[in-house]
Each structure stands twice: as C-alpha cells, then as structure tokens.
Specification:
The structure holds two protein chains of two kinds. By secondary structure, chain A is α+β, with helices and mostly antiparallel strands. Chain A folds into two domains: 168 residues, 3-Layer(aba) Sandwich (Rossmann fold); 131 residues, no CATH class. Chain A is built from ten helices and 21 strands. In chain A, the strands form four sheets. In chain A, strands 7-8-9-4-10-11 form a six-stranded mixed β-sheet, sandwiched between helices. In chain A, strands 2-3-1-5-6 form a five-stranded antiparallel β-sheet, covered by helices on one side. Chain A has a five-stranded antiparallel β-sheet with strand order 14-13-12-15-21. In chain A, α4 crosses α5 and α5 runs parallel beside α6. Chain A starts with a strand and ends in a 9-residue tail after the last strand. About 3% of the residues of chain A have low confidence. Chain B is an all-alpha fold. Chain B has a single domain, classed as MetI-like fold (Orthogonal Bundle), CATH 1.10.3720. In chain B, 74% of the residues lie in helices and 0% in strands. The longest helix of chain B has 37 residues. The two termini of chain B are 38 Å apart. The chains are: A alpha+beta, B mainly alpha.
Chain lengths: 401, 278
C-alpha cells in the first residue's frame, strides 16, 4: 500500500574485458540496440514513472527492453546506477531488499524445493521473527484465499504448474507487502492455465488491494491486467497510458506495432494530399478520403498540406470490399479462427516509392463470408476504414495525431 | 526378432555379470583374508596364513587388541581427529564454495585459480615445509597437528562451488526479498540444496582422515596420541608381527568406516556420478 516513484532512473551494466570478449565471440547473434558507452551497456535510461497507491502498472516490451531490470531495481536486486527510487515517500536507492517491504513473484516461481508449501509461505515471516501463532494465522489465511489449504504439507515437487504458481503468489502476499512485484509470472504456464491465472490475479488484486508492478512480454496480459501500461524498448519508455490509450493513440510506430494482435498493418511511403477540398491518403496507389474528424485532428496537430506519412491500420479495420474498389491483394495464408478469419495478404499494387510486396493482415468475421473461397491465391479488394487510420512521421516514427 | 533381442540381452548381461563378479572377488579377497586371520591363533597365522577357514577358531586376537593395548584411547583420537576435520571441512567448503559461486568480488578469479593450483601440487612436495611450520608452532606430537592444516580442503571447495552454481539465482534472490540475510541464505537455502555434495564430501573426508597413516606417522610420536591406522604397527616388533592381533585391529577399524559409508552411500554415489558429469 504505497506509491512508487522512479525519477530519471538509469541502469548501466559495466562490461569487463572478459565479458566484452564473450560478446565479440557471440558476434552478430545477439544484436541489441542498447546504447553502449565507455561505462558499459545502458539497460534502462530516463525512466520516470509515478505509480499511485494501489495502482496496477504493467511494464511490457520485447526481450532485452529493460523491463525486468527496472523491476529488479525496484526490488533492490540490482543497483540503481543513476536516478532516484521512492517507495511510500522514502528514498530507497540504498535500502536492502528485505527492508523495502516488497514481495516478488518470479517467473520460475523460485519455491524453496526442500520446504513444504507451508514452510515456503512461512519463511519470510520467520525471517522477520513473527511468533509461531502469528505465522500460522497468516499462512492459513493466505492459503484460504488462494485455495491451496489442502496443499500445505506438500513439497513443491509434488505440485502442478498452476499450483506452484498459486503458492508463489501466496508466499509473496502472506506478509502484506507494500508493493507486489511480478516478473512474468504466467509465462511458464500453458495457454489455458494462463488465461485462468490471469483472471485469478485480477480477483486476487481486488482482495488484497495493494500496489502491483507486473512485468510481461505478453501484450494481452498487459492490456487485461494493467490500470496503466508502460511500454519499453531498448531501455527507453515508449509510452505510458491506460490500455485504451495505448491502443487507440499509440505514440509511435513501435507502440502501434507492439500493442494489438494481429499486428497493425503499416503502409510506409504513403502520401497525404489535398484533393477536391478534402484530404486523401494515397496508399498503394489507391486514394482514401479521410473523415472530417481525422482531418481536424491532423490540422490540430499541425499537419496540413502534402506530406509523406506511414499509415497504420489495424487488421479489424481492413474491410473486404464488395464493390470492386480498394487495394488489390492476394491471399497468401488464410487462418480460420472460428468466429473470424485472419487473412494474410500481399498487395499487388505499388506504393509511392515503387516498392512492392506490402503485406496486409485482415480480420474478416466469418458471418456472411464465403469461407471456402478464402484460400491462398484468391484476389481481393480491400478498403481501409479511414477513421481508424494512424499516421506516423516516416523520419521520427512519432505519431502525427 | 524378439527372441534375438532377448538372447543378445541375456548374453551381454551374463558378460557384465561375469566381469563384475571377477572384479568383486579381487576386491573382496583381502578383506576375507583379513577376517580369517583375525580369528586364527598367532601360531597358525605364522604357519598357514593363506588358509581361509581357521583350523582353530579363536578370539585371542581381538581380546589382545582390546585388553592389552590402549585401543579405546586410539579410537578416541581417531574419532576426534576425523570428526573434527570432517565437520570443519564441510563448513569451510560449503561456505567458501558458495562464496566463489555466488558473490562478486575483486580478485575472485585469481584467488580461485590459486586455490586450484594448490591441488596440482602433490602433498609430498609440501610435506617437509608443513612439518617445519607445525614443529615451529609447537604442535609436534599433538593431535592438533593433524587438524589445523586440514581446515580447508580445495577439492571440497571446488565440489561445493560447482553445486552452488546450479542453484537457481531466483531462489537466492527470493530468500533475500523474504528478508533472509547472507548467513540465513547460506544456512537455510544453500545448504539444503547441495546435500548430495555435502554427503559425498563427508564420506570422502571421513575416509581420508580415518584411514590416514602417513600424517599421523609424521606428526605423532607418543603411543597414547596415536590414531588407529598408526597403532597397527604397535603389534609389530622389529622382527615379528602379531598377525592375528593386527588383523583383528584392522577389522575393528573398518567397522566405523563401513557404518559411515552405509549411512551416506546414497548421497555418495549420487555425488560421485554427478561430479563425473562435470
């Protein structure tokens, strides 16, 4: 129950010569875009975030983006190279993990294999010198909430993945931490169990009502769990916002591509131009007239007149045209998902730069669709819903809206 | 096809069995010979030592060992030296092994390399210098001369380090967040995780010091300070050996070692096979 504040936090991993050599040996294999200075590799920089009391914040991003490092800095498992960390108003940079009053759930659960579930959950209380009766009360209460009372006498080895996950969470919240840290807690579970546990976490959160910081690479988890999402890439925060905000108003190309499945379609080298007193976007040779509100929003953002842009359109906003207008494309792969079909297409037309082979993904509802006909090789005409278009600067990759 | 597989399987099994049997016999014969002679009269051990079944079954050898010599005093010395060394080595090896496996400090690699290097120097090379040092600090003819130089065992450190490196990092971090200090982590998390290594090391060191003959021979001179292996020579004079008593003493010495082995053998075999993999 506390707010967490990170100010200009930076993490530099020093490279000593032996490691440098190792990196050289690995060569191109492990290429990251992390900034490297004389001091070392900068894993996280300019990290500014204020997490409110009882807020659920999700750090999300591809591997190597610094999200876990950030979490580990909050936990005190990594030194903070620069910047300040406050938990509940207290400066925490040099405070030992055990004095930060935090709990953490690890990706591989990190249950102590030689202890029973009960002992696992009691360990932190024992370390803090609680009395036996208090420990017992706390453990049994937590076990009750998580529905693991029958497992208390078992060793972790005798538990299923989902049960271990529960125990790991129970162990973390048994002592009522100020902040609850979770490092990809669901990534070791199969898809079905993951969905189930995701719902459990939402329920759990209502019950224990404390500050959560959750790290994941799975944007679905991020969207469903977070009050706010922090999207990271190469050590930098890309965008902070509610799930709705980052979905509807992605700040840049990376966020737009990262959030949403299937990925947003991008049409590089598209062109905005004025025509017949209105605005059109020329995409792959086809002209799409923009809705008035879009034009207004663009004008507000200072975009008027002709310019080159990257247009982004989510797959749900790609519509199969009935009247023979729109972008000409060929189906390459058609995935039947049940209520909808995911069509992977290749555009036949050329874009402004003359480059070919733009790939487009479209989601078509199965209802009223000739499913049989939607097979590889079929030509389709595609319309794009202009009110759902995103525009990005080709140079800065920032959103124009 | 199935029959063929079966015969081949049977043949190879028979072969393996035969080889194991032959090796076992070679290993076991000295023990049988030892036991057989311990039950013979002194006269018979001199005239017919190779005969397995004693012509006249007697406990004279055992009685002589237990009543005519300070056997229990020697047993006490041996137990004290062996147990102290084993416990101290288990403690230092696990602690230092954990340190080398999990902590970062300046000069760590160099220090570890130096430790490893000492393993390559044969004990015989350092024997004289060690003796001079022990003598200088006044420990000659003291059981401590057999204990203090054994406080650190490089092999033990190496073994424990390898095991500690296998412990998932998250386990230790989790304990740290749970509020455990460095020593609590070592004692409550690390030690239980490396039990196979500890079991193996316990047996190794126990056997090493229990059976040690050379070092007691060098450092101990008075009869009452002797350890059991050294005391075996008590029953030999310059010209004759009381084979019956010597064999009886040997058989008695073997008992504690066998008991320790049986207790720890599961861990021991696990430890041995796992060290083999590395």
């Amino acid at each position: 129950m506390a707010e967490v504040v990170l100010k200009n936090v930076k993490k530099i991993y020093p490279i000593d010569d032996s490691e440098k050599k190792k990196k050289d040996d690995q060569g191109e294999q492990k290429k990251t875009n992390l900034q490297i200075t004389d001091k070392g590799v900068i894993a996280v920089q300019d990290f500014n975030l204020e997490i409110a009391d009882k807020e659920f914040v999700v750090l999300v991003g591809p591997s190597g983006c610094g999200k876990s490092t950030t979490l580990r800095m909050i936990a005190g498992l990594e030194q903070i190279s620069e910047g300040e960390l406050y938990i509940d108003g207290e400066y925490m940079n040099n405070v030992a993990p055990k004095s930060r009053d935090i709990a953490m759930v690890f990706q591989n659960y990190a249950l102590y294999p030689h202890m029973t579930v009960y002992e696992n959950m009691a360990f932190s209380l024992k370390m803090q010198k609680y009395s036996k009766a208090e420990i017992d009360a706390h453990v049994r209460e937590a076990a009750e909430i998580l529905d693991i009372t029958p497992l208390l006498e078992r060793k972790p080895k005798a538990l299923s993945g989902g049960q271990r996950q529960r125990v790991a969470m129970g162990r973390a919240f048994v002592r009522n931490p100020k902040v609850f840290l979770m490092d990809e807690p669901l990534s070791n579970l199969d898809a079905k169990l993951r969905n189930q546990m995701r719902a459990e976490i939402i329920k759990l959160r209502k019950k224990i009502n404390t500050t959560f910081i959750y790290v994941t690479h799975d944007q679905v988890e991020a969207m469903t769990l977070g009050d706010r999402i922090v999207i990271m890439k190469d050590g930098f925060i890309q965008q902070i916002g509610t799930p709705q905000e980052v979905f509807t108003h992605p700040k840049n190309l990376f966020v737009a591509g990262f959030i949403g499945v299937p990925q947003m379609n991008f049409f590089p080298a598209s062109r905005l131009q004025q025509e017949d007193g209105g605005f059109v976007a020329e995409i792959l040779g086809e002209k799409f007239r923009l809705a008035d509100e879009t034009v207004g929003a663009l004008a507000n953002a200072g975009v008027s007149g002709e310019r080159e842009v990257v247009v982004g359109v989510r797959p749900v906003n790609v519509i199969i045209s009935e009247d023979g207008t729109g972008i000409d494309a060929v189906i390459e792969v058609a995935e039947m998902m049940g209520s909808e079909m995911h069509l992977h297409l290749k555009a036949a037309g050329t874009d402004v730069s003359g480059e070919q082979e733009t790939e487009i993904i479209a989601i078509a509802p199965t209802l009223g669709l000739d499913v049989e006909a939607m097979s590889a090789g079929k030509h389709l005409r595609l319309n794009l819903q202009t009110q759902a278009m995103h525009f990005f600067d080709p140079e800065t990759e920032e959103s124009l809206l | 096809m199935k029959d063929f597989a079966y015969t081949r399987d049977f043949k190879s099994r028979a072969l393996i069995f035969a080889i194991l049997l032959a090796v076992s016999i070679i290993v076991v014969i000295p023990y049988i010979w030892m036991l057989s002679n311990s039950f013979k009269t002194t006269m018979e051990t001199l005239t017919d030592p190779m005969h397995i079944i004693p012509q006249e079954f007697t406990l004279d050898g055992y009685i002589k060992v237990l009543t005519k010599s300070p056997f229990f005093h020697w047993l006490g010395n041996s137990v004290f030296i062996t147990c102290t060394n084993t416990l101290v080595i288990l403690f230092t090896s696990t602690l230092v092994g954990y340190l080398f496996a999990r902590f970062r400090f300046r000069g760590k690699d160099f220090l570890f390399a130096m430790l490893m290097f000492t393993m390559m120097v044969p004990a015989q090379v350092t024997m004289i210098t060690t003796f001079i040092i022990i003598d200088d600090i006044g420990l000659y003819d003291s059981v401590w001369a057999l204990i203090i130089p054994s406080f650190v065992n490089v092999f033990g450190i190496y073994l424990c380090k390898q095991y500690c490196e296998e412990i998932p990092r998250e386990l230790i971090e989790s304990a740290r967040i749970d509020g455990a200090g460095d020593f609590a982590i070592y004692w409550r998390i690390v030690i239980p995780q490396i039990r196979p290594a500890i079991g193996a090391l316990a047996i190794f060191t126990f056997m090493e010091y229990w059976n040690d003959y050379l070092n007691p021979l060098i450092y101990l001179s008075s009869t009452e300070k002797m350890t059991l292996p050294l005391a075996l020579s008590y029953f030999s004079t310059q010209h004759t050996t009381d084979l019956s008593a010597t064999m009886a003493a040997s058989a008695l010495i073997m008992i504690p070692a066998a008991v320790v082995f049986i207790i720890f053998q599961k861990q021991f075999i696990k430890g041995l096979s796992m060290t083999g993999m590395k």
